[in-house]
Write a structure and sequence with these properties.
InterPro entries: WD40/YVTN_repeat-like_dom_sf, WD40_PAC1, WD40_repeat_dom_sf, WD40_rpt
Strand order of the largest sheet: 1-30-29-28
Largest sheet: 4 strands, antiparallel
Shape: globular
CATH superfamily: YVTN repeat-like/Quinoprotein amine dehydrogenase
Number of domains: 1
Oligomer: single chain
Keywords: Repeat, WD repeat
Strand content: over 45%
Protein name: Poly(A)+ RNA export protein rae1
Length: 346
């Protein structure tokens, strides 16, 4: 693995978010209703900014923040765009009525750090995935979970597009749930990728999912047995002999193309249907642990910071720069293409 040194963290000339976290960013997302951006961090904080657009310029205004007792690993917006759920190493999920200025309250607990949270509006339930090898479903008005689902190993990643929920665990298992019957596994699949699962993203049409791993590879997987011939994997986030983790998979909300972001410091845009890379962006000077589109897909936010892939001993918080950037995707970066031109399919 090559080191980044003091390389440029913004070679793509993206807009920089003001007052970024003081330690690595663990998750990032926009409200589905407005351009409010939330990020969680290893500095125990959940922060929100309002993003405003002025022509082709973007501005960010810090709005509010809350604290956890330990690093925050994940968050999710409620579908009404007013409330944020956040969880992490303190083994609890806080519900923060962000836009009403209310105080956060604890609404979920696990026996180990919480790695993933998802609000499921169709069920009015919160799903939480933990390293205690469970998924729990919560009615936020009650103190006990409405259901606890055992997993084969620690939850590493989770993606929900009701009724589809895909959970990636530590042993390369991918557990698929039909949320119309959430107490039974719909399907258990061993990852098509040979190494540890890093991220999953359910297709917008709920017919399958993407999976990314630490080996710089993405798998495109369809659930229907009749569509298995459409499954493939492809290489990305690699440079000669250096192989980097795929940390983030995000579907465009309109065109259903997708973005990957990796530990090589790059983010790329892809079209799975024509099997093409739409655009490769220049590598930033540090890894990208997470990225996300806003509600209409006109902004892609991404964090550039240390991603812990080389352990705590290689992290120096006093010198590391933690940045959040906003990129305005051009039409050729986000729209599907018609022709079929394979990209590194293997």
């Amino acid at each position: 693995m090559s080191s980044f040194g003091g390389a440029n963290t913004n070679p793509n000339k993206s807009f920089e978010v003001t007052q970024p976290p003081s330690d690595s960013v663990s998750s990032i997302s926009f409200s589905s209703k407005a351009n409010f951006l939330v990020a969680t961090s290893w500095d125990n904080q959940v922060r929100c900014w309002e993003i405003s657009k002025n022509g082709t310029a973007l501005n960010s205004t810090p709005k509010a923040s809350i604290s956890h007792d330990q690093p925050v690993l994940c968050h999710a917006w409620k579908d009404d765009g007013t409330t944020v759920f956040s969880g992490g190493c303190d083994k609890q999920v806080k519900m923060w009525p962000l836009l009403s200025g209310g105080q956060p309250v604890t609404v979920a607990m696990h026996d180990a750090p919480i790695k993933e949270v998802a609000w499921i509006p169709e069920m009015s339930l919160l799903a939480t995935g933990s390293w205690d090898k469970t998924i729990k479903y919560w009615d936020t008005r009650q103190s006990n979970p409405v259901h606890t689902q055992q997993l084969p190993d620690r939850c590493y990643t989770m993606s929900v597009r009701h009724p589809l929920m895909v959970v990636g665990t530590a042993d390369r298992n991918l557990i698929v749930f039909n949320l119309q019957n959430p107490q039974t596994e719909y399907k258990r699949i061993v990852s098509p990728l040979k190494y540890q699962t890093r991220c999953v993203a359910a297709f917008p049409d709920q017919q399958g999912f993407l999976v990314g791993s630490i080996e710089g590879r993405v798998g495109v997987h369809h659930l229907d047995d009749a569509q298995q011939n459409k499954n493939f994997t492809f290489k990305c986030h690699r440079e000669s002999t250096d192989i980097y983790s795929v940390n983030s998979l995000s579907f465009h909300p309109v065109h259903h193309t997708f973005a990957t972001a990796g530990s090589d410091g790059a983010f790329n845009f892809w079209d799975k249907d024509s099997k093409q890379r739409l655009k490769a962006m220049q590598r930033c000077g540090q890894p990208i642990p997470c990225g996300a589109f806003n509600n209409d897909g006109s902004i892609y936010a991404y964090a550039v910071c240390y991603d812990w892939s080389k352990g705590a001993e290689n992290h120096n918080p006093s010198t590391a720069k933690n940045c959040i950037y906003l990129h305005l995707p051009q039409e050729d970066e986000r729209k599907k293409r018609n022709q079929n031109s394979f990209f590194g399919v293997s």
